[in-house]
Amino acid sequence: MSSDHGGGGSSGSHSLAFRVMRLCRPSFHADPLPLRVDPADLLVGEDIFDDPLAAASLPRLLHSSPDSSDLSYRSRFLLQDSSDSIGLSGLLVLPQAFGAIYLGETFCSYISINNSSNFEVRDVVIKAEIQTERQRILLLDTSKSPVESIRAGGRYDFIVEHDVKELGAHTLVCTALYNDGDGERKYLPQFFKFIVANPLSVRTKVRAVKEATFLEACIENHTKSNLFMDQVEFEPAPHWSATMLKADEHHTESNSQTKETNKPSVLIKAGGGIYNYLYQLKLSSQGSAQMKVEGSNVLGKLQITWRANLGEPGRLQTQQILGNPITHKEIELHVTEVPSAVTLERPFSLPLNLTNQTDKELGPFEVWLSQDGSLEDKVVMLNGLQKLVLPRLEAFGSSTFTLNLIATKLGVQKITGVTVFDAIEKKSYEPLQDLEIFVDLD
Predict the structure, then answer these.
(1) What is the 3-state secondary structure of 75-99?
(2) Is the N-terminal amide bond of 364 cis, ω within 30° of 0?
(3) Can you tell me the distance from the alpha carbon of 194 to that of 192, in angstroms, rounded to the nearest whole number?
(4) What is the pLDDT of residues 78-113, one digit of tens each?
(5) Is the pTM of this model over 0.85?
(6) Half-sphere exposure of 217 (CA within 13 A, CB side)
(7) Contact 384, 406 (CB under 8 A)
């Protein structure tokens, strides 16, 4: 419970006045002195106390406690209690200031309205609000059941709580409407300001590797207290699934329910300590098609909960994390099956699928192998007709077809330049990615 925090808005003519104190946990008081010692340890080993007769023969000085009247501090390094060796005095120190308030914490305040006059005040309506740059949040309102009276020299106390969800300047507004001793109705406002800081910074990196997307989240502690991360979970957007990747984790333990229930907290040290989390994200096939149509690249958001040194809870939720920009394609051409065996100078088939990814009908289409470069450089060529005609495709429809090809050289070769041309729009689409095949004699 901290001391009063500044306010304003009241005048000497008021019988009532607000006093505001923040309720928070105390902190340990650490002794800055060096490690203390027992004088007996300087002369004899600790095993001497295993023999009662030997221990009784020690000089009486070693058994006597330091003289508290000794003003020379000669005994300040001596153990007076066994707990002195860990540097903690055993005392919890109550905060003497309003203290730092961080985003994600619960602000708890003890408010007392005092009657400093010599007469009773009646029908007291009390309100307490938190005002931010964006909104006002009502914490207490006694309009429907006013405090009947506050006697001379008396007070009325209450506690308010607020989950802090905004950064920056906050104002606790306390107001009282009451009947003074002479029956006059008076209005008392008082304001108590504080700043909300950010306890954590979350930096993210997104990398796409083939069909998987990896999200790295770096969490940095900006507070003056160690933070113990109870939960850092990624909530994926629809059509995404997420798996946290951990180093040195045995597969036999990955399905252990006990481990998930009693998993240890992650310590992030005060004043700039960091910890990295890695998630593997996968997109469902249905979600892949929808994202390509809609162009959305939202991956999800992080839910973070922690506790400070004495268990003070905190909770944050990040904004939506975006993945790599998605390029919208009108059509998509891909190979449905790679030929398992290709024989030199013998025809083979390449099965393909063409998908219309728009909401309108497209086509008809023409498919050919582009003639970039000389014919001598072409190792894989069309066998037969050099141009294949495909019918129109309805919105979001697809069509399968095959190209008849022939290879002219042995070894690992590439099928290149498969191009789709819209006969109505008179435009060519992006060619199919090069496909490697192995050409053998038989």
Answers:
(1) CCCECCCHHHHHCEEEEEECCCCCC
(2) yes
(3) 7
(4) 656 655 555 555 566 666 666 778 899 888 999 999
(5) no
(6) 24
(7) no
